[in-house]
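=== Structure Prediction Worksheet ===
Name of assembly: unnamed complex
Input type: mixed (protein and possibly other molecules)
Chain count: two
Listed entries:
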Amino acid sequence: MRRLKEVQKRLKEKIGEKILKDVEKGENPYIEIPLRTLNNVVYDSKTGMLTLGGKSAKRFLFNIAHAKKFTQTLMVSAFCNQLLKENLHTSLRDMFYALKRTFPNSNENTFEEENESNAVLVDLEVALDVLREQLHLNADVRGRVVGNVVIKDGRDLINWAKLGSGGWAIPSNVEDIEFKKVDADWILCVEKNAAFERLHEDKFWQKHNCILLTTQGQPARGARRLLQRLSTEFKLPVYVATDADSFGWYIYSVIKYGSISLAHVSERLGTPTAKFLGLTISDIDEFKLHNFTIKATEQDIKRAEELMNYEWFKSKDWQRELRLMVERKIKAELEALSGRGLKFMTEVYLPTKLKEKKFLD
Amino acid sequence: MRRLKEVQKRLKEKIGEKILKDVEKGENPYIEIPLRTLNNVVYDSKTGMLTLGGKSAKRFLFNIAHAKKFTQTLMVSAFCNQLLKENLHTSLRDMFYALKRTFPNSNENTFEEENESNAVLVDLEVALDVLREQLHLNADVRGRVVGNVVIKDGRDLINWAKLGSGGWAIPSNVEDIEFKKVDADWILCVEKNAAFERLHEDKFWQKHNCILLTTQGQPARGARRLLQRLSTEFKLPVYVATDADSFGWYIYSVIKYGSISLAHVSERLGTPTAKFLGLTISDIDEFKLHNFTIKATEQDIKRAEELMNYEWFKSKDWQRELRLMVERKIKAELEALSGRGLKFMTEVYLPTKLKEKKFLD
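=== Predicted Assembly ===
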């Protein structure tokens, strides 16, 4: 479903021709958009992902409350259609400017703020069941990767093993990259660039035959999609290492299950087989990190309590770790491992966790 | 001065042996650190850079007010010495954890917060006249680059022209990369990744034989150092394109002159020959962007007024642009150019500015 033509076909059939038919039949033209409100977001325990339920809403042209949104939806559809036709890519912000204007003979603007055009684009993603990237709208970029992998991106053959200390900058759109060679047994995804750089320098990925990737904080869509593609297309296990705090654990959960605000794309951005490798609060005892913990803030505690209530954090192990955090009111960063020596993460912590299979699921 | 041995020599002579001599002479051991307070930061109109003046302070061991800072300075020095000896690199955060402990028989910690060890490291940078990266402490990473350039990073030969849509992820430390081939006439540095991706897709750097780099917002040290090295080692003119607002213009000024907080490293991070290519408030008239401007906030205006007072924004052109912003209370983003069409920046805006040499200096 990454093919350009298939996306163009959906745009044409579900939007253009659909509206045309309504008009020809003399009916009030409408577009049907699945609802993305919280009461239509469900955790599917079978697939292990956050997805949308079955509710949807109709957006009519001849309805004072709908007319503007209807028009905006057609404008965004036409814009995407143009991008696909000319094979151009751009950002959400650029799309906003490209579509912003004043309706003739009025004081009304097509779009006042970028969040209006962004919301309409997400509607379109859901309605057509495609990714924003397949409509050629690029998201934020963040994330770097190294490993024994050769990809084809456009005309370029890129060897992730030969990009020096920087690695490959994961672009916002990885829909069209082809994997030419993937010689790795698993993927290690670390939250922070500092950990990535240390592991890269210590040649961790060579010694352990893995792909090493950093999300550089909250994972951008490009990094999530890349993880998902590698894990499904090559059956590679994914292990995630973050700080031992609510923010880090939520990053793991976004990689694995998807996020609430993007539940409609979990299937293509989520990696339900991902496992959590660390850090945990238990690790603080086990690896003697007591001197290197940080006092958890009120907000950390509150967030941990929220996580405890999420269905997808209900396993015994996660409940224990979350409870430990709430009780002991501490957290720890990946960098805390350097308290035990700069190579402690590479030579002791990760190998021990991997050997003893101490993963959280 | 990028050689490891030279940095080790300075650490040894200016810190280790210096202290040892004081001790042997029976004197109160001290380290001399140039002051980094605002009253010791000067704008040097000859070199066109912010630099440190001649004031400095002595840090003594036997002085209740100095003893802890003195000890911290020696701890950080010893840590850096170890990094250089083992040829390891790490982050500021990791260094903090590696050095954090409680002094024996006391309740006093070596370092309470990371900003303490960071400040000591900057002291050391200044005292030894080296870069943090030369002491093997990596900074934040941000920034991507493409162009007809081949570099050697470690054992890897990397061709910036063949890295697909992502480009090369600029690492935090570019001290040791070697330029093997640089086939470009100039460098275009854009603030935003969205602009970088559009220009890259439109093959701007191939058509105009330039290196294309994005800082992705506030420039990280790696990106600044890379620009500086390319511009000095290959005499390449640097042109900077940012949003037309105080934040964007300050980014330009940091690339060109250095920043107040890092004035001691301007010489190695600043690119005084850099010129500003756009956006300006005048561009809004000239390129008919009126429909795509944003109302400037109180803070934007205040910041623009501050910039007007900086010595390095005193040129007639800059004063005019800053005044226009304050008077008209508007700003504009690079993405606003998309209001005139997605390829407007590539095909009209940049070529026109370059042809008419409409640069600000």
